[in-house]
Design goal:
Blueprint: E1 5-7, E2 9-11, E3 14-16, E4 23-28, E5 33-39, H1 43-62, H2 65-81, H3 83-94, H4 98-115, H5 118-121, E6 126-131, E7 134-142, E8 145-149, H6 157-168, E9 172-176, H7 183-194, E10 202-204, H8 209-217, E11 221-227, H9 230-242, E12 246-250, E13 255-259, H10 265-277, E14 287-292, H11 295-308, H12 330-345, E15 349-352, E16 363-364, E17 367-368, E18 378-381, H13 388-391, E19 398-401, H14 407-416, E20 419-420, E21 422-426, H15 430-439, E22 444-447, E23 463-464, E24 467-468, H16 476-481, E25 483-491
Parallel strand pairs: 1-5, 8-9, 8-11, 9-10, 11-12, 13-14, 13-21, 14-19, 18-19, 21-22
Antiparallel strand pairs: 2-3, 4-5, 6-7, 7-25, 12-24, 15-18, 16-17, 20-23
Helix pairs in contact: 1-8, 2-4, 2-7, 3-4, 4-6, 10-11
The structure holds nicotinamide-adenine-dinucleotide.
InterPro entries: Ald_DH/histidinol_DH, Ald_DH_C, Ald_DH_CS_CYS, Ald_DH_N, Aldehyde_DH_dom, MeMal-semiAld_DH
GO molecular function: methylmalonate-semialdehyde dehydrogenase (acylating, NAD) activity
Protein name: methylmalonate-semialdehyde dehydrogenase (CoA acylating)
């Protein structure tokens, strides 16, 4: 058997093993087998990567923004040319299906396309005659070196959401991707250099808490864009505040789908099943709670979901027949199974039990799937607000139905939940939908749209425990986040010199 491949840091255009000698296995979730080892950085390694980035950033930040976006234009082209290879690698490390992996990459590329508007986004404002012979203008300047710390569940999309605007704005970018699926982030950085990006401007360093803490404690890092679970988001937000860094930290989610009696039940059931179980429920915008309004709506919807769910195919990530693949690790699967057990114990009705999925005799292209981290789709009815399957983010293929008597009761569920990432309403009543969108205490709302991830030129961000910080990801907010504004007030010498003035200048 061949030795597993090593995935190492990528610094100044070179693969770099670092100094620790420490590695961690990278698994294939479909088979449970180790397929690589990823290097783990310590503080000294991270400091070296940051110093290299700072050195390269000076010229990049001073360059005309059009020069920077021409690199990004070629980068987009190279990502498209390498799409199949990237998607296959992503799929094999994450476990999501090949077409879903392509979607992961494309939604990242969308933000690179948006970043091509950097020359426009970086334009300042100008006001003439703010005083006698005085003009004022503002400019947006890069922060310097910024970092992205990203989760396992979108190993291409989220790094690109951070790297695109950060680099286009003239920053140097240090990426600390998830150690569970680290290959694609490295490949994306290599393609950036191949596209003509200067070596050192975009570096990738792998690792866990030690590497993250080194980023947080560095004086050179000026901003951190984080996406991951809520406890880590809060930790990073606090450390950034303590060390004077700008931070945007996006956390976990529990996304509700409210279904009104006038919704088309068959179509809504299909839509909800796709949004709940797609990518094995490992999406921060997955619909994990369905809230039908009224008993008749609930009965019809529960029947349709229970009828359609057993038809789903769970399989190897590269199996074209698979609707979704395995969970990312055995721990993730065991956690899902534990929460299902808690749901039963708390009195919810487990209508479909995904734990019964048996892969022991399954194989794909000669590879046994018995040791893969699979979980079948599960569906609970009669879930209540106090149950852990409702209060906690499960991050697996588990859909919970909470029945509501009225629309007000239904809306109170997402409103009162600690998370506020996404929410959807299914109805043909425009007035009710409009009212819902206006009032609901959640950051991203879908009206008959199950996964309302905003397009690249709008911004993405949840509320409450789903997001910490003032600015969202992508869209115009991203350029605000990755730049600082400088305001210049000018007056040219003229005849009006009147000696020293000791009072605050005001416009009369
Ligand atoms: P995670 O919090 O375990 O890891 C995220 C990043 O933090 C990784 O790079 C990891 O190496 C690092 N990290 C982990 N433990 C750490 C520690 N103790 N100290 C410092 N750094 C640490 O999250 P995950 O499991 O990779 O991703 C899944 C989570 O991300 C889910 O909660 C999901 O909802 C969330 N998510 C949120 C969004 C959003 O936009 N709100 C998007 C995608 C995923």
């Amino acid at each position: 058997m061949s030795a597993p491949r090593n995935i190492v840091h990528y610094v100044s255009g070179q693969a770099w093993e670092g100094t620790t000698g420490a590695f961690q296995p990278v698994l294939n979730p479909s088979t449970g087998k180790e397929q690589a080892q990823v290097a783990l950085a310590n503080k000294a390694d991270v400091d070296h990567v940051i110093a290299e980035t700072a050195e390269a950033q000076r010229a990049w930040g001073a360059a005309n923004p059009q020069k920077r976006i021409r690199v990004i234009m070629r980068w987009i082209q190279l990502i498209h040319e390498n799409m199949d290879e990237l998607a296959r690698t992503l799929s094999l490390e994450h476990g999501k299906t090949f077409p879903d992996a392509k979607g992961d990459i494309q939604r990242g590329v969308d933000v690179l396309e948006f970043s091509l508007g950097a020359p426009h986004q970086l334009k300042g404002e100008y006001s003439t005659n703010v005083g006698a012979g005085i003009d004022t203008y503002s400019m947006r300047q890069p922060l310097g070196v910024v970092a992205g710390i990203t989760p396992f569940n979108f190993p291409a999309m989220i790094p690109l959401w951070k790297a695109g605007p950060a680099l286009a704005a003239g920053n140097g970018f240090v990426l600390k991707p998830s150690e569970r699926d680290p290959s694609v982030p490295v490949r994306l950085a290599e393609l950036f250099i191949e596209a003509g990006g200067p070596e050192g401007v975009f570096n990738v360093v792998h690792g866990g808490k030690d590497a993250v803490d080194a980023i947080l404690n560095s004086d050179t890092i000026k901003a951190v864009g984080f996406v991951g679970s809520t406890p880590i988001a809060q930790y990073i937000y606090k450390r950034c505040a303590a060390t004077g860094k700008r931070a945007q930290c996006f956390g976990g989610a529990k996304n509700h789908a409210i279904v009104l009696p006038d919704a088309d039940i068959e179509a809504t059931a299909d839509t909800i099943i796709g949004a709940a179980f797609g990518s094995a429920g490992e999406r921060c915008m997955a619909l994990s709670v369905v809230v039908p309004v009224g008993r008749d709506t609930a009965d019809r919807l529960a029947e349709a979901i229970a009828r359609k769910t057993p038809d789903l195919n769970v399989g190897h990530c590269l199996d074209p027949k698979a609707d979704f693949g395995p969970l990312v690790t055995a721990d993730a699967r065991d956690r899902v199974n534990r929460l299902i057990g808690e749901g039963i114990e708390a009195g919810a009705d487990l209508v479909i039990d995904g734990r019964s999925l048996d892969m022991s005799n399954q194989e794909f292209e000669g590879e046994p799937l018995a040791d893969g981290f699979f979980a079948g789709p599960s569906f609970f009815d009669n879930v209540t607000r106090d149950m852990s399957i409702y209060t906690e983010e499960i991050f697996g293929p588990v859909l919970c139905m909470v029945r509501a008597e009225t629309l007000e009761e239904a809306i109170s569920l997402p409103d009162e939940h600690i998370y506020g990432n996404g929410v959807a309403i299914f109805t043909s009543n425009g007035g009710a939908a409009r009212d819902f969108a206006e009032k609901v205490q959640v950051g991203m709302v879908g009206i008959n749209v199950p996964i309302p991830v905003p397009i690249a030129y709008h911004t993405f961000g949840g509320w409450k425990a789903s997001g910490f910080g003032d600015l969202n990801q992508h869209g115009p907010d991203s350029f605000r986040f990755y730049t600082k504004t400088k305001t210049v007030t000018t007056k040219w010498p003229d005849e009006s010199h009147a000696g020293p003035q000791f009072t605050m200048p005001v416009m009369n």
